[in-house]
Amino acid sequence: MSLVLDPIAQDLLFREARTANTFTDEPVTDEQVQAIYDLVKFGPTAFNQSPLRVVLVRSAEARERLVQHMAEGNQAKTAAAPLVAILAADNEFHEELPQLFPAFPQAKDMFFSERPIRESNAQMNAALQAAYFIVGVRAAGLAAGPMTGYDPAGVQKEFLDGDHTPLMIVNIGRPGDDAWYPRSPRLAYDEVITTV
Fold it and tell me: Which of 7, 84, 175, 189 is the most exposed place for a label (fewest CB within 10 A)?
């Protein structure tokens, strides 16, 4: 069975898309970010908990504060990207559950009253949403440069609070010169999929 999604869209979102390492100086607009969010907010999460929170780093002052927490190899590209997003998990997501999961509002207290349970759920489901976010950036015709090479404690202290755990930093923009490293190999179907 073939995929229903148009092959051009398949290429845009997956086959031709790669992590960008350089960007042009063309700005990423608030309208583009809104369009990305309005698409990816529909991606599924458990109990519709939607724990992803995004901090957009636009000002030069905030950019300088962020760059000092990036690994050395990620500093220059983070300093130069048109837009940088800090993707974080909200460990207090359960406060929104009565609104987000009205079919079972008691889930807030029944399943998520303990912080360690919330943290593990927030991490997993926000990571799902982070993947949707990256694909949404690609759907907007932009390139994403997701990175985990940074000081999480430093980023949390500088931009978040104790209820939000940083997951990754994503540079966003139009790809610049020599933006792509060569495509790395992927596992074959039979190396991943097992039928029992």
Answer: 189
Question: What are the pLDDT digits (tens) for 9-28?
Answer: 999 999 999 999 999 999 99
Helix residue spans in the chain (DSSP H): 7-10, 30-40, 60-67, 72-80, 97-100, 107-111, 115-139, 152-159, 189-192
Q: How many CB atoms lie within 10 A of CB 72?
A: 7
pLDDT digits (tens, 9 = 90+) for 73-121: 999 999 999 999 999 999 999 999 999 999 998 999 999 999 999 999 9
Are 82 and 25 in contact by the 8 Å Cβ rule? The answer is yes
- Give the list of residues 6+ apart from residue 88 with CB closer than 8 angstroms, or none: 52, 53, 54, 55, 126, 156, 160, 164, 165, 166, 167
102-109 long-range Cβ contacts below 8 angstroms, 24+ apart: 104/47, 107/47
What amino acid is encoded at 147 in this protein? M
Pick the closest to residue 167 from 188, 143, 149 (CA basis). Answer: 149
Token code pair at residue 75? 């500093």
CA distances in angstroms from 24 to 64, 113, 148, 153, 193, listed in the order given: 19, 46, 22, 30, 39
Give the pLDDT confidence score for residue 105 in this predicted structure: 86
Mean pLDDT of the chain: 96
